[in-house]
């Protein structure tokens, strides 16, 4: 049975309930840009293409994330490889990049650490915008670091180095001007862990104790030994955790503690400066 592009997309959309996913998967199989669809909707699909497309649609219907099926995901201005060894970069995390860039000089050397780098999304986005910065990307997973290193090479970003270890332990006695992280922050009994894309992502990159704050507590405590005064710590967290993480930062002695909201007006990123009393004229709040 011959099938046109438009017919295949209609059938896949009915199965998935999502036209965008169907288009992304078909274009991935074809190796074509989205603009191709506008003038080729009547083309007949090759049988091998149809078989490969049907296989991806079936896997997506069982819940596998589109990014894992295609192996790529866009973040900031970058196209990144992703695998089940890494979290899938999400648009809301770009707020963390924006806040980090606002606290880094545009034309001077500085040191940045990205904790739990995963695919390298945050580290590479910052490094691409601040070529004079030296960015250290740390992850406890050797598999994730291999993906991140590959993404750096594919995007031509050379001012990032990669280290394997638990949070800040690979730094030794080093100090930097900025530490950023998108750490695990989901509660261990959160029902969302059994739904949607989260079922397929690495649990070690998602879950952090009964209240979701175990890793954030450690980062807040340990970062003080690795921030070059006056240095900033910034991290992403859950939308209901803003008040709790601000209290943790304040109790640990950080100054200028704040929480920024994402486009949906939900608490998303918090941070503070270490040590207190080091604000300079013109610094962002």
Short key terms for the protein model shown above:
single chain, alpha/beta, Rossmann fold, two-stranded antiparallel ribbon, 9 strands, 35% helix, elongated
The value of Rg in angstroms is 21 Å
Q: What percent of the residues sit in helical stretches (DSSP H or I)?
A: 25-40%
Overall form: elongated
What is the CATH fold-level name of the largest domain?
Answer: Rossmann fold
Strand order of the largest sheet: 5-4-3-6-7-9-8
Would you tell me the overall average pLDDT? 89
DSSP strand tally: 9
Q: Structural class, from helix and strand content?
A: alpha/beta
- Named CATH architecture of the largest domain: 3-Layer(aba) Sandwich
Unreliable residue runs: none
Describe this structure in words.
- The protein has 285 residues and is an alpha/beta fold.
- It has 2 domains: 5-62; 84-274, Rossmann fold.
- It contains 10 helices and 9 strands.
- The chain has helices at 5-16, 19-30, 36-40, 47-61, 66-70, 94-101, 121-129, 142-154, 214-223, 242-251, and strands at 72-75, 78-81, 110-115, 133-139, 160-164, 176-181, 227-236, 255-261, 267-274.
- The strands form 2 sheets. It has a 7-stranded mixed sheet, with helices on both faces. Strands 1-2 form a two-stranded antiparallel ribbon.
- The model has no long low-confidence stretch (mean pLDDT 89).
